[in-house]
Each structure stands twice: as C-alpha cells, then as structure tokens.
Design brief:
The complex is a heterodimer of chains A (about 190) and B (about 525). By secondary structure, chain A is α/β, with parallel strands linked by helices. In chain A, about 40% of the residues lie in helices and about 20% in strands. The longest helix of chain A is centred in the C-terminal third of the chain and has 20 residues. The model of chain A has no long low-confidence stretch (mean pLDDT about 95). Chain B folds into 3 domains: about 220 residues, 3-Layer(aba) Sandwich (Rossmann fold); about 100 residues, Rossmann fold (3-Layer(aba) Sandwich); about 170 residues, 3-Layer(aba) Sandwich (Rossmann fold), CATH 3.40.50. In chain B, strands 2-3-4-6-5-11 form a 6-stranded mixed β-sheet, with helices on both faces. The two termini of chain B are about 35 Å apart. The chains are: A alpha/beta (about 190), B alpha/beta (about 525). Bound molecules: thiamine diphosphate. Thiamine diphosphate binds next to helix 5 and helix 17 of chain B.
Chain lengths: ~190, ~525
C-alpha cells in the first residue's frame, strides 16, 4: 500500500498543518512516511508545495516522481493546477475554490474553474465559506483535508485522533472547531461524488 | 531509544546533541537554519548547557567552533553552501591545524537555487581542503553519520565536513536515536603548537594531513556507509552519490536494480571500489546531486577510457537538482507524466509582505532616485532583495552578503554620483562593517541605507547581531554624526523621508540613513505569543 500526496498552496496558507495531521495519522497506522517541505524564500507569498509519501514499505525518494501522485490537495485553485504533471492518470485533485490573489496577472476565475471542472476526478469546494459558516474561519485547510479523507486509505477516526493530538495544547474549543471543519469537508465529498 | 519524525536538519541536530556536543555555532541560511534552531529549542540542550545562539557570520562561527574544539569539546558549525565561502579561510586552515575535540562542519547546498544565488557543491571544498566528507542519503543516515563523524574527527584529529542538500534538509522521516553520550572534559591540545601555523609548523602539519589521506580513504571502506551492491547485468555500473541513491532506487519498485551499484556517501571515494566497478562493467553512469566532480575525475580530460555517462555527456542536465524522473530518463526507463500545466497558471514569485517596512523605504528611495538616471542602487541579500521585482524595480545588484556598500564605493570611485547602497541590519553586521570602514577611509561619496527591521527576516526571523548597535558601530568607524540619520519608514513620514534622502544624496561623503521599523512577521508573532500567554 502506498499513498503519494502533493500538498499545494501559497506561502503562509498553512499547508504544513495538513501535512502534520496526515503524518500523525499515518504514524499511528505504523506506516513509513517521508514529507518534504518548502522553507525559505518561497514562504514569502510564493507558491509552495509539500510532497507527502506514505507506504507500508520503506520509501526511497523524498520527492514523488512525476505522474505518480495519488492526490493533489490544494488550498488554492490556481496552485492546484500547477502540479498536474505530478498527478497519476487515476489520481484525484481536491481543491479549495477561494482564490488567493497576490499577483496582478492572476487568471480569470471562471476560466480557472472550468479548467478544474474538465479534470477526470476532482473535488472543488469553497472551503473558506464553509469554514466561516462553522465559525472557524481559520480552519479552511481542515475543511480541505476533510474533503480529501475519503480518498486517503486511512480510517477517518485516525484523522480525528490526529487533530485531537495536534491541537491538544490549544483547548477543547479549538479541537471541536477543527473536527467540525474536517467533518464538513468529508460530508461534502461524500455527497458530491 | 525512541523513534522520532525529523527533518534531515533536525536529525543532524538531535544526533549532535546525542553525541555530546558542548556548543553549536551558525549563521542562518536556507537550507541549514533548522539545525541550529532545533538545538536552540531543545530541552536536552538546555539541561546540558549547550551553547547555541547565532553567530555574526559564518567565519566567526567556524573560528569559535575551532576554539571550542581546541579546548577539547565536541562542537558543530552549520551554514548554507555560500556561507562556506565566507568561512573558507578558517575552514581550509582548520585542516592543517587539525582539531582536538570532535568538529563537524555542516554545509547545506541548494541545487536548483530554491533560495540561493548559486548552486555550488560543497564536496568540492572538502576535496580542496583535504577534509573528509560525509554525504548522507537519508535522515537516518544523517543521524548515524553525525555520531560516526565525531568519532572519526577525534580519531584522526581532523575536521569533518557533512554535506547535505535542500531535499534532505527539509524532508521528514522516522529516525532511530542512540543513547546520548556525555560531553568531553575540558582539555587543551597535548602539543601546545598544534594550532600555530607558522610556516615551519604548518609544513609539518600539512604533511601529516597528506599522510592521513590513506586513513581517510580506508575509513570510507570500513565504516560501512559506502556500499558495493552486486548486479547481474554488467553492461552498466552505477555510481550513486548521496540522495541520488534514493532516486535510483525509486525507479525499481522491488529495489532490485539489475546493474552493479556503488553507493557513495563518504569521501574520499575509495579507489579500490571504483576500480572494481570500472573493471567489471562495460559503461559507467555517475549520479551526483551537484557538480559532476567524480564524473570528471573518472572520465579524465582526454576521456580515453570506458564510456562515462552523467552530466558531462548530457545524459543528465548540467544544472539543477536530480529527481526520480531525471534518473529514469538517464536509464531509459519510462517517464510518465500527468497533464501539462495549463497556460493560465501564472508564476507566483515571492514578494514582500503586506505592511513590510522595506516597501516604505523603497517608495521613498525611488521617489528621489527617479530624478536621476537609472542604475545607481547596489543592494544586498535579504527580504529587501525582493525590491528588484515589480512594482519597485528599485535595485541593480545583489551578489554576496556585504557587497552593497563595497560595490557602491567602487562605482563611486569610478565616478558614479550619487551611488546608493541598500543593506539589511543582519547583513550589515555579517559583512557590511568592513566595507563601511573602507568607504569612510576614502570619504567615498555614497549614501548607505541600513534597513533595520530588528531581525534576520529572510531566513525566518532570527535575532540580529545588529540590534541596538548600528549607530554606535557607524559612529565608531568614523561616520560623521551629522550624516547619520534614523528615519521611520511609514506612509505618513514619506515626505519628510524623501526630503532627507534628497539632501544626503547630494552630500559628497559617506551618509548613512537607517530606516527603522520592526519586521511585520516578527511583530505579528510577538503579538500572537503575547495573546497566548494572557
Ligand atoms: C553568506 C551567506 N550567509 C547566509 C545567507 C542567507 N541569507 C540570505 S538573506 C539573509 C538575512 C538577511 O537579513 P537582513 O540583512 O537583516 O535582511 P531582512 O531579510 O531582515 O530584510 C540570510 C541570512 C546568504 N545568502 N549568504
């Protein structure tokens, strides 16, 4: 069993907490894990990616080969498309639809969405609005992760455990909000595919 | 011992602590920064009194580490690849003095230049200085090699260079720890002249270093990190260095490579193993994450031997980091890719943060300089280098840390007036002060902006040696008080700032203007922490 995931977003959007949550769940399952991150210059508002690899066998490369990613999980719609060459023919793309516009040549959002909709297997959801509706404006990334969970071969309760553990120092309220965000994302995917 | 999920950088730091270091010395630089930060945040380090605060630059770090080693203690010094250029004088000569307590120098290279000006290969420096090099292929090996490296260093009384690259530095994996060791006792060298490199002594020490090379090479066989892996298909033999080994393995899902492989993670490369591979196989492929150093060596200038494939013959691109696909192509294996990136996807370069003080500084500087012809701003390395991009287009150079003041001086010497230098606070103490002394000595007509945001911003907000010292330093080296100004880079001060800049630009001597306002990132972090602690 192996799962290769590309996490995508813009520096400062918090893709690393998605990585940490999946990572925690994977370790609990006794899986091998490699996760390469972007530190440094790109974190200043540039495009960032993380390669997250889970397997029941030892993993060789820190980088996922092109065409081999099972999932792209993106907290930003344009960034989700940047990594299409990494996605395998049967892979899924899970993306937020709220654009993060910090450049003046950002593409037309309608064209962007039609490009995403033309993919074979995708889930696109407005995670920012969903998080806001839950009173968890800062947990959009957990909504996105939730939407990805049906496509990651790890039991859902393992993700819940991970959230409880990762946020344990932040209090019950923060845990509850993030669990609700995770659930909202999961429900979205289950109802729309 | 427990298994931890660690970045390559963190594995190195954890192992250094477990190997009983008494101190770590470093100047921040991607991708090496997290090694020292790990030690700074470690409880284990605190309990054992391991010193870990930032040094002013890589040279001071290297020399302080050498001093700690002189006193018999184990120590590590960390830097990014270009930092080794700054520390080179100390580094190269430390091979001649040798060490007392174990000393490991970690140089983190950045092939593909994710956050750097070049992609120089630090293994070259190791070879040049005749210092043994360790190049771990994964996080566990990084951990194990630090422990081994300290033993090696003390056994041969030599500094050891550990070379890593971005992908290992910033990738996490499970790492098995070993039992922690106690720190060494304080003990100065038995030979009181070991570190005195007078020619007569240096000649002897150099001979010793040369004689040790056999021992170093022998270690590279016996330590077990280098491996000769047999293969049935002798039409090709593969030399895979450092993390290139992982990319090779990734292409064979059962890890059964048909060809003989020489996995190299310790240098000098044992000639015995090279000879075996060369003799046994029809052709050789060399996979190096970096410059084709050993490929070139094996091939020779005349290339009269067997066919050697690698970067030099175009089997692999000459520049950039490797990945599994580049290796697949080199081996004629299928290279499957997903859909192409749609044309509508725009580039998203890094940019200065909303609210960054540098933005206000550049707005003021630009307004004044718009009245002169273009091409007058010599800048330096830091967040403010992003002023090179639109909409600012504010700077004309960024070469190496400290080069802003000195290049402005040289251009002024050539007749460019006014010439402007823009340098960050941390970069100023790193390498700007000596250039300022040169400018003051010649009374060069330059205007220097020292952008003081109280931090080393680009690398994530480390403390800056310059904080609360800049005016004293400038006055101390002879900048005139009437040409030293502190301004507040804020929108509502813009007009005043512009006026002052106009005046100082026209002054025929050294002016220093210090736009001072806290980095927006460290400010936000401070506010968050304050809120948390309430
Ligand atoms: C010799 C060398 N060491 C380290 C670095 C990494 N580095 C690049 S910019 C920078 C920090 C600059 O800080 P500062 O001058 O205060 O400017 P800021 O980023 O805060 O604007 C560092 C450490 C480098 N490029 N070269």
């Amino acid at each position: 069993m192996k799962i290769d995931i590309i996490l995508a977003g813009v520096g400062g959007q918090g893709i690393l907490s998605i990585a940490a949550t999946i990572g925690y769940a994977a370790i609990e399952m006794g899986l091998f894990l490699k996760q390469s991150e972007v530190h440094g210059m790109s974190q200043r508002g540039g495009d960032v990616q993380s390669h997250l690899r889970l397997s029941d066998k030892e993993i060789a490369s820190d980088l996922i080969p092109f065409g081999k990613a099972d999932l792209i999980i993106s907290v930003e719609p344009m960034e989700s498309l940047r990594y299409l060459p990494m996605l395998s023919k049967d892979g899924w793309l899970i993306t937020n639809t709220t654009p993060f516009i910090n450049i003046n040549n950002y593409p037309d959002v309608d064209i962007l969405m039609s490009k995403i909709s033309s993919l074979k297997q995708f889930v696109a959801l407005d995670a920012d609005s969903m998080a806001k509706d839950l009173g968890a404006a800062r947990s959009a990334n957990m909504v996105i992760l939730g939407a990805a969970t049906p496509h990651i071969k790890i039991g859902y309760e393992k993700f819940e455990n991970a959230i409880r553990n990762i946020f344990k120092n932040k209090g019950e309220e923060v845990i509850a909000v993030n669990l609700a965000a995770l659930k909202a994302g999961k429900d979205y995917t289950e109802q729309n595919s | 011992m427990q298994k931890l999920l660690l970045l390559g950088d963190e594995a190195i730091a954890q192992s250094a602590l477990d190997s009983g270091i008494s101190g770590i010395y470093a100047y921040p630089g991607t991708p090496s920064t997290e090694i020292t930060e790990f030690v700074q945040h470690s409880k284990q380090a605190k309990e054992n009194n391991v010193r870990s605060s930032w040094s002013t630059n890589e040279k001071t770090a290297m020399e302080a580490a050498l001093g700690m080693s002189y006193a018999g203690k184990r120590t590590m010094v960390c830097m990014k690849h270009v930092g080794l250029n700054v520390a080179a004088d100390a580094f190269v000569n430390s091979a001649i003095t040798g060490v007392n307590g174990g000393l490991i120098v970690v140089a983190a290279d950045d092939p593909s230049m994710h956050s750097s000006q070049n992609e120089q290969d630090s293994r070259f420096f190791g070879k040049f200085a005749l210092i043994p090099v360790l190049e771990p292929s994964n996080q566990q090996e990084a951990y194990d090699m630090v422990r081994y490296g300290f033993e090696f260093s003390e056994k041969f009384q030599t500094p050891v260079l550990m070379r890593i690259t971005t992908r290992l530095a910033h990738s996490r994996a499970g790492v098995q720890r070993q039992e922690p060791l106690a720190q060494n006792a304080l003990a100065v060298p038995q030979d009181p002249r070991q570190f005195v490199l007078l020619p007569a002594i240096a000649r002897k020490r150099y001979k010793l270093l040369l004689n040790n090379q056999h021992g170093f090479e022998n270690e590279a066989i016996t330590s077990g990190f280098n491996k000769y892996i047999e293969g049935k298909d002798k039409s090709l033999g593969i030399i895979a260095c450092g993390i290139a080994y992982n990319y090779l393995m990734e292409n064979y899902s059962d890890r059964n490579v048909p060809y003989p492989i020489l996995k190299i993670t310790q240098y000098p490369i044992p000639i015995e193993l090279l000879d075996k591979l060369y003799t046994e196989c029809d052709e050789i492929m060399v996979l190096e994450e970096g410059y084709p150093i050993y490929e070139e060596l094996l091939k020779g200038s005349l290339a009269k031997g067997k066919k050697i494939k690698g970067r030099l013959d175009g089997t692999i691109p000459m520049d950039g980091e490797l990945n599994p696909n580049i290796v697949a192509i080199a081996l004629n294996l299928p290279d499957e890719r997903g859909d192409a990136i749609p044309d509508i996807v725009a580039g998203r370069p890094p940019s200065m943060c909303v609210g960054c003080s540098h933005i206000d500084s550049y707005n003021a500087i630009n307004e004044v300089l718009n009245t002169y012809s273009k091409g007058r701003v010599f800048s330096d390395i830091g967040c403010y280098t992003l002023g090179a991009l639109a909409p600012f287009d504010a700077i004309n150079s960024c070469v190496d840390m400290g080069a802003s003041i000195t290049m402005a001086k040289g251009a002024a010497d050539a007749g460019l007036f006014p010439a402007v230098s823009v340098i960050g606070d941390s970069t100023f103490t790193h390498s700007g002060i000596t250039g300022l002394i040169d400018a003051v000595k010649d009374n060069s007509p330059i205007t220097i902006f020292i952008l003081d945001n109280f931090t080393t911003g680009m690398t994530g907000g480390q403390e800056s040696s310059a904080t609360n010292r800049i005016e004293d330093i400038c006055l101390g080296v002879g900048v005139l008080p009437e040409h030293l100004h502190v301004i507040k880079p804020l929108k509502n001060q813009h007009d005043e700032n512009v006026k002052l800049i106009q005046t100082e630009l026209e002054y025929h001597g050294v002016s220093v203007i210090i736009p001072r306002r806290e980095c927006i990132q460290t400010l936000n972090k401070r506010m968050r922490d304050k809120f948390k602690n309430k």
